[in-house]
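Retro notes, item 3 of 5
We never archived the inputs for the adenosine monophosphate complex last cycle. Fixing that now. Sequence and ligand:
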Amino acid sequence: MNIYNTLTKKVEQFTPNEEGVVRMYTCGPTVYHYAHIGNLRTYIFEDILEKGLEYLGYEVVRVMNITDVGHLTSDGDTGDDKMELASKREHKSVYEIADYYTNAFFNDCAKLNIRKPAIVEKASDHIDTYIEMITKMLNEGYAYKSGGNIYFDISKARDYYKLSGKNPEDLFVGVRDTVEEDTLKKNPADFVLWFTTSKFENQDMKWDSPWGIGYPGWHIECSGIGGKYLGEYIDIHCGGVDNIFPHHTNEIAQSEAYFGHKWCNYWVHGEHLNDQSGKMSKSKGEFLTVTLLEEKGYDPLSYRYFCLSSHYRNQLTFSYEALDSAENAYKKLKNRIKQLDRTPNLSDKKLDFYQDKFKEAIGNDLNTSSMITLVYDVLKDEELSDFTKLYLIDDFDKVLSLSLIEESDEVSQELDEMIRKRIEERNIAKNNKDYILADQIRDELLQKGVKLIDTRDGTTYELI
Ligand code: AMP
Ligand code: ZN
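Structure as it came back at the time:
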């Protein structure tokens, strides 16, 4: 598989640390509000990446955090606490806010066929891990204490700007004008690992620590949770492009300081969904959620189709006209598939051909529009029986997850039943010493792309 690596700024061949296993970390949502469909574009891309890797034969161990503490309204260390603001706005405790919006997030994901990662962990459940990491970084001189807060000293990091590829001047122009300067820092880019001097006196989420009662900075949660569940080497780390700086830059700095070696080899970032006036945000313009799309009569999967039609590294502009045409194409496609004849007849040996092409599309930096084109190619191919088309589309849909076939495992199940019935008939023929019929059944299945394998425990099959 080839994938674009933000760290090296090129498309590279992907090789995991352990053969056949991919350790993947994806930054999760900050649960102070509903996710907008821009956020969900990033989760759709990560879902396709995970399922694409599985299609290529990898076992994927995927972890996601839930940011329920420490994310301030600025991506730096200033501004208000997003969770506290929501708690005031909705007259609920921060814990109620976190639970409510975490559920809402996974409900939206389910509507978009985004699979919930196997390991999902709340930031607030791992305070001991952060304290242990920060203590080590303090002892080793990567962090310092100033005015009660603990800061990471970026001058100690190995090549702090390697991920963003920018120089410090670029990154802080503009920011300086709008962000109140934290005079406790040695360097303006140093970031907080642990806050004790908080301006949020009534903050609900706070814990005891060796440095006083307080709460963790935003970035440490991903290094802590990633390290705890994936070990000290990660293969792929994902997020939206806005996470490159400062969040992922800071994750690298503190993880490499803590572990003492390179942490993650591939950094993969999804481009943004924009609205007509620029980057979509929760505070600007119409707040576009999955629920709003449903209220307007759209099938959420039309939005998934819309996202998959463009490459994850291209910016995508949302408009209702664009969504209308995606919905149109998606509905038409589903209709065409619905009309295919479901009579079991796996008549073709082009399965490999199409499955290889599908793998190529995945391996070509996750080319989702080519994957969709392949569905159309299969539908058009007159050499394929309808059943074979259904079989292939069902197979591709393991990655695309567009619910292209209503009951998605129906085809494979029907096929399996058909083959098992034929194996049974062949067994009866063999018992009757009717080897001609037995061989006939075997050859007939082989012609349909099904190879029988006789073992001591009976006959199994593989699709060729
Ligand atoms: P947040 O809940 O704000 O932490 O964001 C969740 C994810 O959405 C992060 O990976 C962001 O990079 C991503 N994100 C934020 N805005 C957009 C956008 N307009 N388009 C695509 N992804 C976004
Ligand atoms: Zn993160």
